[in-house]
Amino acid sequence: MNGHANGNTESRIDVAIIGAGLSGVNAAYRLQESCPEYSYTLFEARDDVGGTWDFFKYPGLRSDSDLFTFGFQFNPWPHDNPIAEGHLIKSYIRDTAEKFGIDKNIRFGHRLTSADWSSAENTWTLNIEHNGHSKTITARFILFGSGYYNYNEPLEAKIPGLENFQGKVVHPQFWPEDLDYKDKKVVIIGSGATAITLLPNLAKTAERVTMLQRSPSYILPLPNNSNGLLLWWLVPLSWFLSKATIARIQRMAWILIARYFFLLCHKFPKISGWILRWRSSFYLPKHIPLDPHFKPRYNPWEQRLCVSPDGDFYRCLRQGKADIRTDTIKTVTKKGININSGETLDADIIVTATGLKLLIAGGAVLRVDGKEIEIGKKYLWNGVMLEDLPNASFIIGYTNASWTLGSDATAQFVCRLLKSLESRKLIAATPRMKPELAKQIKNLPLLNLNSTYVTTAESAIPMAADRGPWQPRDHYLKDIKFATKGNLDDGMEYVQGPNLHLRPKIA
Ligand SMILES: Cc1cc2nc3c(=O)[nH]c(=O)nc-3n(C[C@H](O)[C@H](O)[C@H](O)COP(=O)(O)OP(=O)(O)OC[C@H]3O[C@@H](n4cnc5c(N)ncnc54)[C@H](O)[C@@H]3O)c2cc1C
Ligand SMILES: *[C@@H]1O[C@H](CO)[C@@H](O)[C@H](O)[C@H]1NC(C)=O
Ligand SMILES: *[C@@H]1O[C@H](CO)[C@@H](O)[C@H](O)[C@H]1NC(C)=O
Ligand SMILES: *[C@@H]1O[C@H](CO)[C@@H](O)[C@H](O)[C@H]1NC(C)=O
Ligand SMILES: *[C@@H]1O[C@H](CO)[C@@H](O)[C@H](O)[C@H]1NC(C)=O
């Protein structure tokens, strides 16, 4: 195990960060840079850093955001390609944790099972499970970098007759690394980013891969080289500007391009939908018609847009090793799938790429003075803290831009909150909904996406409203401004008290 702090010195910490994925590592860096007088420890249930990028193992696993914005601002992505494979992202997270000494503060194999806030003592008591034992740790602030989905259970999809199937059924969330799909017939059920990644990668060695989708997604082919066509002007700049400056410009350019593309899609849904479909038709082989296979029922960016680096998805369809069906399942049989058109798809392996089950706070039970807080029944304050939950913050990134951008805005907000309250001698901060406001508000979705995995998860994620500090976050440039300058008092209740002695940071 890393680190040198023994159990005793660790039983009281200032900030407990839950999770050592992108969000946890980013938050740790922000804390040690701007609040060095606060000690922090990251508790990670797994045995390694990386979160999502350590957990998922399916062939071809990759980002669909560009790494210039998906990567850390303080340690820019070191490679040229904007879309990266999972193992590269994981090494990048690990290297970053090592480079900045964050790894020393990670406790692996430590799962938070519950957290109790005591108003009498103004502290959190964390119950942490480690090697089958449970230990308690007190903390002054909790920062949840625990991601947004359940690692143990995928989204249930009812597939009629699946129990009859005599081949192998695989869920991408639990991909067996020794799965042999060479010369096998594979059917992928689903049409999200995972299915679109899997198809070309499985088709490299499988006999045949068929993607069976209920409804299509937009799939945007994107050049997989340094900056594509849009950022050619960075090349002459790189002759006389430093690497760090170029990295900053590159990151900002990608933030703006993605933002304007997103806005364009929302403002002109008809035209942008048409352009995206026209791009698809350009790449498709003759035997696969645009309609119905590439004609989504929704407008661009109502659900997450899928990308295909260098059009690998389309290339694989053109090469004839893969196929696509837009239909529903009648029943799964011993040897394949009967679809409602009457056709039977033979299969040796069925991959159920049916999505993630959303989960906030990594399944930990949260209590205030012994009373359990139901996350799905509370509003999120400015996208960062939960109504009625003192001294805790949730890192929930964006769904319509790189997650990390939102995650960094939250981390920077928490640093400012800690410093500001320290200087005002306030010891607890709790978002509260004013009763008169509660009567006026209308609910809004927190995550602005219509995907099934978001719409079926309403009870698992916090709520958002149409006014006051309870509105969902909007975009990075606005949220960073809020993090560094926004109003900390609107809808927040404070407890004044003796300034708690801060423990010196673990060296
Ligand atoms: C296949 C896939 C591809 C994706 N691609 C993109 C993309 O291209 N762009 C994008 O913006 N987003 C993408 N996402 C979303 C992605 O998960 C996030 O962007 C990002 O990786 C989240 O980082 P995180 O640190 O917030 O959470 P995670 O990566 O989920 O890490 C959370 C960590 O917290 C730990 N943890 C959870 N609960 C507890 C607990 N109770 N106690 C202790 N530890 C706990 C977990 O073990 C994990 O290590 C993708 C998601 C998936 C599944
Ligand atoms: C509670 O959190 C605030 C920041 O939100 C921090 O300044 C304060 O010290 C914390 N309280 C205690 C008791 O540590
Ligand atoms: C993208 O480019 C990188 C670097 O050249 C390469 O390693 C990777 O395999 C490419 N990815 C795809 C999906 O083509
Ligand atoms: C989701 O769908 C509903 C109804 O189909 C629509 O009114 C709403 O605007 C959509 N939301 C988003 C974010 O696209
Ligand atoms: C982007 O998503 C956020 C929620 O994650 C939402 O509040 C925001 O309105 C979206 N942006 C636009 C322009 O729709």
UniProtKB/TrEMBL annotation:
<protein>
    <submittedName>
        <fullName>Uncharacterized protein</fullName>
    </submittedName>
</protein>
<keyword id="KW-0285">Flavoprotein</keyword>
<keyword id="KW-0274">FAD</keyword>
<dbReference type="Pfam" id="PF00743">
    <property type="entry name" value="FMO-like"/>
</dbReference>
<dbReference type="InterPro" id="IPR036188">
    <property type="entry name" value="FAD/NAD-bd_sf"/>
</dbReference>
<dbReference type="InterPro" id="IPR051820">
    <property type="entry name" value="FAD-binding_MO"/>
</dbReference>
<keyword id="KW-0503">Monooxygenase</keyword>
<dbReference type="InterPro" id="IPR020946">
    <property type="entry name" value="Flavin_mOase-like"/>
</dbReference>
<dbReference type="GO" id="GO:0050661">
    <property type="term" value="F:NADP binding"/>
</dbReference>
<dbReference type="GO" id="GO:0050660">
    <property type="term" value="F:flavin adenine dinucleotide binding"/>
</dbReference>
<keyword id="KW-0560">Oxidoreductase</keyword>
<keyword id="KW-0521">NADP</keyword>
<dbReference type="GO" id="GO:0004499">
    <property type="term" value="F:N,N-dimethylaniline monooxygenase activity"/>
</dbReference>
